[in-house]
Design goal:
about 50% helix; alpha+beta; about 350 residues; 4-stranded antiparallel beta sheet; elongated
């Protein structure tokens, strides 16, 4: 069992110019905004946080028990800024309502977003459509433009945007200018998206990419994924691997495991096509399995599937046999070729 302060946590990837989809919920699903005054206080606190950190907010929405931000950090200061934002708001909320204790549920979620137009626009649209996707939304009597606790009214010229809200980047991704004409066209774009949700059987799943926003550890293309994996390596450097958890860490481990498999294949003079022709308990496969098992935390299932080892019911026995083999014994020749590999 993990002791206090030892619970595995998600590593935070911070770098200058990073863009994140940030989301946080109330503790035990409780409301973090009970009144309009609470919402005003949060936005005031967010404004202060932007002043302290230099953050740029490109989209936001405040719901009853959670909030979303599309946030850009010109400096690598996500963690310190979020700690200040949430702790300060919590103190102000508790003081107003004469309460104490935690307001937010665990750690906030911060998903790195590739700055490219497709991904940036997808997150902004997802955030602005949050009120519409809620169960019970009345499409006949309610209008998205009237939901004032969102950046959307500023995007369509209904209200003046605060200084910390940046409209240009989202509008530019649609080829629009930050002008009355651009605002009207953005409203038309969002109107079409609202209609898509209105006629969807499952509004919260109206777009496949939204599932990646909700459950993924990054949002971007393959090149961005590789970049984030490299940054994860740096974020976890110097700490114990067991101190971290989450989908991003799993992806990092699997990427590292794949590098080891490729390096081991090179040493053993194997091709990818060879795995299907080799017996499941071949010494070469177990040498590679030992290499991956020794240097990563990927599951045995991943190793067996990657090396085409089937169920490999005596997996641990054969791994130990390869590791302790002596010259001339089963597994020694293969094991001796890979045991010093580092990537």
């Amino acid at each position: 069992m993990w002791g206090n302060g030892d619970m595995p946590r998600k590593p935070r990837v911070e770098y200058a110019g990073a863009v994140y989809h940030v989301m946080s919920r109330g503790n035990r699903q409780q409301a973090i905004f009970r009144t309009d005054r609470d919402r005003e206080t949060f936005l005031d606190t967010l404004e202060e946080a932007c002043g302290r950190t230099g953050w740029k907010v490109h989209a936001f929405v405040l719901m009853g028990n959670h909030y979303h931000l599309l946030l850009e950090t010109p400096e690598a200061n996500l963690v310190v800024g979020m700690q200040w934002l949430q702790s300060t708001y919590t103190k102000r909320f508790n003081a107003r309502h004469r309460e104490w204790g935690h307001l937010f549920q665990g750690r906030y979620k911060a998903v790195p977003v590739e700055p490219g137009a497709d991904y940036f626009l997808t997150v902004a649209t997802y955030i602005h459509l949050n009120p519409v996707r809620m169960k019970g939304y009345d499409f006949e009597s309610e209008k998205l433009r009237d939901y004032c606790w969102s950046s959307y009214p500023a995007y369509i010229g209904k209200v003046k945007p605060p200084q910390w809200l940046c409209l240009e980047r989202v509008l530019d991704n649609l080829g629009l200018a930050n002008t009355p004409t651009g605002w009207r066209k953005y409203a038309a774009y969002m109107g079409r998206r609202v209609e898509e949700i209105r006629h969807s059987e499952k509004p919260w799943k109206a777009e496949e990419s939204w599932q990646k926003i909700r459950y993924g550890w990054f949002l971007g293309g393959e090149g961005f994924r590789r970049e984030m994996l490299e940054r994860l390596e740096g974020a976890m450097a110097g700490g114990k691997r067991a101190s971290y958890s989450g989908a991003e860490v799993q992806a990092h481990d699997e990427s590292r495991a794949e590098e080891l498999v490729v390096a081991g294949m090179k040493k053993l003079k194997l091709q990818e096509s060879d795995f299907g022709n080799m017996i499941k308990n071949s010494p070469e496969k177990y040498a590679l399995a030992w290499l991956v098992r020794r240097q990563t935390s990927v599951s045995n299932g991943w190793i067996k599937a990657r090396l085409q080892m089937g169920k490999a019911t005596n997996f641990s026995v054969y791994l130990k046999r390869a590791e302790t083999s002596k010259k001339g014994e089963w597994g020694y020749a293969a094991f001796s070729k890979v045991k010093y590999i580092k990537t």
